[in-house]
Amino acid sequence: GAGVSQSPSNKVTEKGKDVELRCDPISGHTALYWYRQSLGQGLEFLIYFQGNSAPDKSGLPSDRFSAERTGGSVSTLTIQRTQQEDSAVYLCASSSYLAVSTDTQYFGPGTRLTVL
Amino acid sequence: KNQVEQSPQSLIILEGKNCTLQCNYTVSPFSNLRWYKQDTGRGPVSLTIMTFSENTKSNGRYTATLDADTKQSSLHITASQLSDSASYICVVRGSGNTPLVFGKGTRLSVIA
Fold first, then answer.
1. Chain A environment of B93 (Cβ under 8 Å)
2. Greater pLDDT, B29 or A98
3. Could you tell me if B89 and B38 are in contact, meaning their C-beta atoms sit under 8 angstroms apart?
4. Which end of chain A has the lower number of beta carbons within 10 A, N or C?
């Protein structure tokens, strides 16, 4: 497709389980972002990939969170030993990063994670 | 601390009416400011991006203004439609490697 896709759209898991969330960015976009949106809260930056550079992990809330981007395209966000406070919508965005001042981020539909 | 504050938190207006959403920020140094529309259950979609030198930018019935001196922005929606019902998120980027700072959004409901 032409847009950013994410899977699964919904994920319900038990506390303590690991989950993997997938993001397929727009083809050719070199920049990829992960965000978390909790109920009633703004978007929270998690991690940023740009080309072959080392990712900016400054937003990851704990070492239970990790992300990979293979081949400069698909990205996977992994949450280990999930906690109830991890319940949120996880959004992925990509951009072409033509220039910092104008890089429009295109968002996927998100994965709604519910930890019971 | 870099922050983006939006007001009002929520707003209900009648179809056809105009409305204005506010965004105040403390992000410094400033690079650009964006307004996004997020429909329920969907990812945000970019409406406008404004740099330091731009005071106003329009996208159809949406007009954004920016006052970089007072660190304020507004999004004006003209002749609202039912499909305008969504959350409107103000996002500010600082210079360098500062990640985007997101406001919590204004929830707009347009009713018939």
1. 100
2. B29
3. yes
4. N
Between strands B86-94 and A111-115, the pairing is unpaired
Nearest CA in chain A to B40: A109
Considering only CB atoms, B43 lies closest to which of A40, A59, A108, namely A108
Q: Residue B105: left (phi > 0), alpha (psi -120 to 50), or beta?
A: left
DSSP summary character for residue B36: E
Is the model more confident about A39 or about B48? B48
Q: Scanning the structure block, which residue is given the tokens 């209900």?
A: B12
Quick one: pLDDT band at residue A1, thresholds 50, 70, 90? low
| Partners of residue B10 on adjacent β-strands | B107
Beta bridge partners of B107: B10, B87
Percent of chain B topping pLDDT 90 = 71
Optimal mutation site among B47, B95, B97, B107, interface A, most CBs of chain A within 10 A: B97
For A105, nearest residue in chain B (alpha carbons):
B46
Closest CA to A35 of A11, A6, A15: A6
A71 three-class SS: helix
Rounded Cα distance between A80 and A102, Å, is 35
> Which tokens sit at A55?
């990712």
**A97 pLDDT above the threshold of 70:** no
pLDDT tens-digit series, residues A18-72: 999 999 999 988 889 999 998 877 788 899 888 888 888 888 999 999 999 988 7
